[in-house]
Amino acid sequence: MSEVKFDKVLDARGLSCPMPIVKARQDINALEAGQVLKVLSTDRGSIKDFQGWAQAAKNVKLLAQETELEGSKEIYVHYVQKTA
Amino acid sequence: MSEKNASITPEQLKHRLDSGQPIFILDVRNEDEFGQWRIEGENVQIINIPYFEFLEDPDQSIGRVPRDRLIAVVCAKGGSSDYVADLLRQQGFQAENLAGGMIAWGNAHQAVEVSIAESDQPGVVFYQINRFGKGCLSYLIGSDGEAIVVDPSRHVDVYTELAEKHGLRIKHVFDTHLHADHISGGKQLAELTKATYHLSASDALGASFPYEPLRDGQEFNVGSVTVRVLVLETPGHTPGSTTLVIQSRFLLTGDTLFVNSTGRPDLGGMAEPWARNLYHTLFSKLAQFQDDVWILPAHYSSQDEVREDGLVVARLAELRKSNVAMHSRDEEEFVKFILAHLSDQPAIYQDIRRANLGLIQVDEDRLIEMELGKNQCAANIRPRKPLTVKTW
């Protein structure tokens, strides 16, 4: 479990591509610069997708990613920070 | 102009590809996935713009998409591509979503009649089933109400439906060898239809389930002697690789021999001895066959192996002429050539073999993941430009 501080949680579990990132973008827009959004996803593709998105986006930085186990299901956690 | 559908199926897209019309594909997966595997074709133009770029820089992304033609939008599962196709349509583009994405593309099958079988064997049903996303080929052959299936994929309904359509009962299911690139549906299909499942004992080493061991010289009749199947051991790609000879006219060579290559001998970590086996198989075992027999393999990797009629097939004569692997003058030359033309073995092949031996149980999601991508069963010998035979 990481020590990354976050300001909001987006529970995107059960949502398929593109929804985790579409919603993350919406939530980031509502944050202040410097704030961090923690995103939970059950979509395995979200690992690479969040990396790609953070690179493509001008005001998003990917702080950390981790995989947690909830029973037998994997949850992918992404911490993204609004930079501007 | 009539209202376009919002989405198309893989079969519909394949049909368009086959018809020769120019196709434009917008692939919205990330660059890594796109680099690994994508839809290919002679008349296909394809660009890769990850879907999140449409979120972040819509003007730039949309600016790269042509307005004057139909765009097929593709992603891994069909979700992001649906989103982008919708976005494009709102901007006045003609865009369609590939339903189910690359996963559906990889799972789609197309049954093509082996029409060359018709002429002197009336009443024989002979299909080559092409899993075109992966380049895997399997066969259903029947007569007088009985059928055999060779190298079926795990999508067993493709075979049961085809058999039912022709009033055939599947009696024997064969795997020409232990497959590393796809999950075999052999055992499952046999259980479902109460057929016998056949695999060579050397390839089945360690299998957790019962099977009928294939043996050199075995003969099977399909439908009261109308179709004769002769079993021929053809080691090289795997120790137990087997060729099925149908009516002395068609060689179902598995991965031993392809239209423009041979099966790679390195998947078991014994590349050199297996390459030598392959040499003997190709030049002694198969040498007994006349030029006019037809080769029907278990894989293909490029469009130039596919005929106009959609069949992947060639006469042994053509292979002897154009298949570079068949040009070797001796064993040393052949072995050296083959070993110099091998690409990396995909890491997942180890797991696929174990699944095919029943050593691991795998859920549907994992099965899908394991099978992503095109096959890499062949030695990489197809020349990119014309090869002068005399150089080696």
What does the model show?
The complex is a heterodimer of chains A (84) and B (392). Chain A has one domain: 2-Layer Sandwich (Translation Initiation Factor IF3). A four-stranded mixed β-sheet of chain A has the order 1-2-4-3, with helices on one face. Chain A has helices spanning 19-30, 46-56; strands at residues 8-12, 36-41, 60-70, 73-82. The mean pLDDT of chain A is 94. Chain A is built from two helices and four strands, in the order βαβαββ. Chain A is of the alpha+beta class and 84 residues long. The N and C termini of chain A lie far apart (27 Å). Helices cover 27% and strands 38% of the residues of chain A. The radius of gyration of chain B is 22 Å and the shape is globular. Chain B has 13 helices and 18 strands. Chain B is 28% helix and 22% strand. In chain B, strand 14 (227-233) and strand 15 form a beta hairpin. In chain B, the strands form three sheets. Chain B has a seven-stranded mixed β-sheet with strand order 6-7-8-9-10-11-12. By secondary structure, chain B is of the alpha/beta class. In chain B, helix 9 (271-285) packs across helix 11. Chain B folds into two domains: 7-105, Oxidized Rhodanese, domain 1 (3-Layer(aba) Sandwich), CATH 3.40.250; 109-370, Metallo-beta-lactamase, Chain A (4-Layer Sandwich), CATH 3.60.15.10. Chain A binds chain B through residues 16-19, 21-22, 25, 44-45, 48-49, 51-53, 56-58, and chain B through 30-33, 50-53, 55-57, 75-77, 79-80, 83-84, 369.
